[in-house]
Amino acid sequence: QVQLVESGGGLVQAGASLRLSCAASGRNVSRYDMGWFRQAPGKEREFVAARRWSDGMTTYADSVKGRFTISRDNTKNTVSLQMNSLKLEDTAMYYCRVQAAIFIHWGQGTQVTVSS
User: Which of 16, 32, 60, 62 has the most CB atoms less than 10 A away?
Assistant: First the structure.
């Protein structure tokens, strides 16, 4: 079983940066696709960014493209999300997800709040 713990969230002003981290334990996730999702109050959870383990290919939601960067460190079993130029609409709970075939694991989330 994989356990995921996110960290790095907080309250920041618009235009600031944050770096989220997701630490995996219980299993080596170097061969898992890893990604970040977010959920704002009253809205459905949405895709933010993902990184494929096989070739390192990354994908981003249009709303964060050019501002967010997903990376992983297989030696530390972690995946990170660097978020720059934060906007009010980035306010949400951010969740880490890892997937290998039909096996999907989610973290508990870390809150990001962007104020004006």
Answer: 32
Beta strands in 46-109 (DSSP E): 46-51, 58-60, 68-73, 78-83, 92-100, 103-106
What confidence tens digit (pLDDT) does each residue in 10-55 have? 999 999 999 999 999 998 888 899 999 999 999 999 999 999 988 9
Distance CA 94, CA 59 (A): 16
Cα distance between residue 111 and residue 10, in whole Å: 6
d(CA 78, CA 63): 24
Burial label, 24 (beta-carbon count in 10 A; 0-12, 13-18, 19+): buried
